[in-house]
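Board notes (copied after class):
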Amino acid sequence: MAYKSPGKGYADVADHFRALIKGGELAPGDTLPSVGEIREQFDVAAKTVSRALGVLKSEGLVTSRGSLGTVVAKSPIVVTGTDRLNRMARNGMRYAPGETSTGHRVLNRSVYDAEVCQALDLEPGDEATIRIRVFRQDDQPTSVGVSVYPPATVNVVPELSEDVRMTRQFDELYSERSGQEVTKGQRLAYARHASQDELEALEIAAPPHIAVSVLVTKVTFHDEERPLAYWEDVYAPGAQVPISE
């Protein structure tokens, strides 16, 4: 694996290895190059390497293992939603090492949620296709992914309504078939209380009178004429989530 990067500062070195970890090219337990190797490959001073590794350690991405050197932490970050699209575009990896998904469901339902209706230009009661799955790292649930597609999108990508796992991302299929570019809107993050369904999916046992806060991210996709999809990810408490695009 090539570790060369044009960056010369500690932030550039840290960003390089952060991207490899986030993209799944460095898996939990993998060893980073030695300080000497990083110095040579990036043409930087030992202090620069030390600062870069310190940044990665502070983010929980790597840890020191004595004679083994610096290794990738067991569960560094949770990558779902639009970050998964970015990762697949970069290296074709749908899942990082140790990552899986379960609980796949496909529902055709009338939509009444005001936020979803507004995002997709739907009237309350209009039908949409909803896909749900639970992402897991080392068999532990890390997030619940929900994607909602209006009929116009499903007409172009009918696979979305089939109760099977998609082998390719919807935006790629839509662009190929419609000739229109799919653009991603601003991803937003906010906190709220988890629903009972979300608690069960994340395997969180909490008494009914206890409210559990979760981080939620949402984003809407569009073509030149209309909204195409609404994605929402609900993250388990304590999950490290990359927010910047």
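Comment from the instructor: The longest strand covers residues 99-110. The two ends are 24 Å apart (CA to CA).
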